[in-house]
Specification:
Blueprint: H1 2-49, E1 59-61, H2 68-73, E2 75-83, E3 88-90, E4 100-102, E5 107-116, E6 122-134, H3 135-151, H4 157-164, E7 168-174, E8 179-184, E9 189-198, E10 201-206, E11 210-211, E12 214-215, H5 218-235, E13 240-247, E14 250-261
Antiparallel strand pairs: 1-2, 2-5, 3-4, 5-6, 6-14, 7-8, 8-9, 9-10, 11-12, 13-14
Helix pairs in contact: 3-4, 3-5
Protein name: DUF2993 domain-containing protein
Organism: Corynebacterium marambiense
Keywords: Membrane, Transmembrane, Transmembrane helix
């Protein structure tokens, strides 16, 4: 009789364990779906802030660690996010001048210690971001910066040169030399720029360039360098540039940061 009673209790205990396991499994799946939805919504909102409406969703992974433990700690140990490109380069319309860059290129984010801070949003304890800035995106950024520079150049020799002759018409990456070739006025002149990462900053080293036998003003190289550095800074606000490499069709950046609010990233 006692053996039979012991067997019944053992079955009850086993049943309770199975039910608890199922409940925890369902709760884990539901929590992952909830946080995934939050991150997807953040991506959609940030895309809208740059003037882009997209239905694409990022790919999100949390690793093997149970997220249920994060409820107690308030921190998710690991999050990997691959965001699709929302980049749009819009040509000028009507009386507008210059190209307009909307959205952001695709990126891979590796996050450790993602804190859930309520009204503050999601804050990454440490984040590594890798992205590619395409030739077309760099060209649009430089052309826009050059237009802004020419509007402030005045009526002197430099102003007349910038307005009438110095027009950036193409940017080509050269992985073999690790440089960017900046073309002016359909090949009439070139500036070669070598990007590098120095002390967490994106640096642009420009060689001398000439147009029709005349040296281009320093303002030209400075404007181009500032435009390229500004474009990278906008995407990685608050982060350091750890590595930069020139690839076919674009410039690859690796950036990292500490205590970065995902809602405030570019």
């Amino acid at each position: 009789m006692s053996k039979k009673r012991g067997s019944v209790w053992w079955k009850i205990l086993l049943g309770v364990i199975v039910v608890l396991f199922i409940i925890l499994l369902v709760a884990e799946v539901a929590l992952r779906m909830f946080i995934t939805k939050e991150l997807e919504d953040d991506f959609t909102k940030q895309a809208a802030m740059t003037g882009v409406v997209t239905e694409e969703k990022p790919e999100i992974g949390f690793g093997p660690a149970p997220l249920l433990l994060s409820i107690a700690t308030g921190t998710i140990p690991t999050v990997n996010i691959s965001t699709p490109s929302t980049l749009q380069i819009v040509p000028p319309v009507g009386g507008e001048s210059g190209l307009t860059v909307k959205g952001t290129p695709a990126a891979d984010l590796r996050i450790t210690d993602l804190a859930l801070r309520g009204s503050e949003g999601l804050v990454a304890g440490h984040i590594v971001v890798e992205t590619d800035i395409s030739d077309d995106m760099m060209l649009a950024q430089v052309q826009t910066a050059m237009l802004e520079q020419t509007s402030m150049a005045g009526d002197g020799l430099t102003g007349a040169l910038l307005q009438n002759l110095v027009k950036v018409t193409d940017i080509t990456t050269d992985p073999g030399t690790g440089t960017l070739d900046i073309e002016f006025t359909d090949g009439a002149a070139h500036i070669v720029i070598r990007p590098s990462a120095v002390d967490g900053q994106l640096q642009m080293e420009a060689t001398e360039a000439r147009l029709f036998g005349f040296a281009l003003p320093d303002e030209v190289a400075d404007t181009i360098s500032r435009a390229l550095k500004s474009g990278a800074a906008d995407m990685g606000e608050g982060m350091a540039v750890d590595d930069v490499s020139v690839r076919r069709g674009g410039m690859h950046l690796q950036m990292s940061g500490e205590n970065i609010n995902l809602n405030e990233m570019g």
